[in-house]
């Protein structure tokens, strides 16, 4: 089973979309194994988005992600990394398919509501950046046996 790191960005929190977004992953069948609200520091933001350092949008990206609280969560399940990216939709919400989270709720590429790890390696790195080991919970659900 894979785990991936997801985060309702400050625009999603401000627009009261956190519950709706978490709910989509619950309804899909993924197991939430970590969940918290936090305000990201500049240092954490620069680490998290380190791959984009030096790009023209980097400063506004860091400014935006530190502008207000985010809701960080970790889901677990089959193909969680790529399935979550599919559920999020394309980076530019205007290009994202209508049924996806970004396609349903966004217009602006700089305010695209949700972050999701783009690979297994990114997921491992981002989960450990935002969650301590003891903040991740292992448990079984009734449905675990037949959901797959
Ligand atoms: P994220 O990391 O936030 O989940 O988004 P992503 O993988 O879909 O896109 P990525 O390429 O990692 O870019 C990170 C965030 O930077 C902003 N961005 N702006 N051309 C632009 O103006 C531009 N390109 C990227 C987006 O907000 C994107 O989510
Ligand atoms: Mg990315």
What is the gist of this entry?
This protein has a single domain (1-131), classed as Alpha-Beta Plaits (2-Layer Sandwich). The chain is an alpha+beta fold and 148 residues long. 32% of the residues are buried.
Features:
18% strand, binds ribavirin triphosphate, binds magnesium ion, Alpha-Beta Plaits, four-stranded antiparallel sheet, 148 residues
3D structure, described in words:
The chain is α+β, with helices and mostly antiparallel strands. The chain has a single domain, classed as Nucleoside diphosphate kinase-like domain (Alpha-Beta Plaits, 2-Layer Sandwich). 41% of the residues lie in helices and 18% in strands. It contains 8 helices and 4 strands. Strands 2-3-1-4 form a 4-stranded antiparallel beta sheet. The protein is globular and about 45 Å long. It starts with a strand and ends with a helix. The mean pLDDT is 97. The site of ribavirin triphosphate has 10 residues, from strand 4.
Rounded mean pLDDT is 97
The CATH superfamily turns out to be Nucleoside diphosphate kinase-like domain
- Strand order, sheet with most strands: 2-3-1-4
Domain count: the total is 1
Ions, cofactors, ligands: which are bound?
ribavirin triphosphate, magnesium ion
What pattern of helices and strands is seen along the backbone? EHHEHHEHHEHH
Report the sheet-strand fraction: 15-25%
Q: Figure out the total of helices.
A: 8
Cα shape: globular
Q: What is the CA–CA distance across the termini?
A: 11 Å
Helix content: 40-55%
The CATH topology annotation reads as Alpha-Beta Plaits
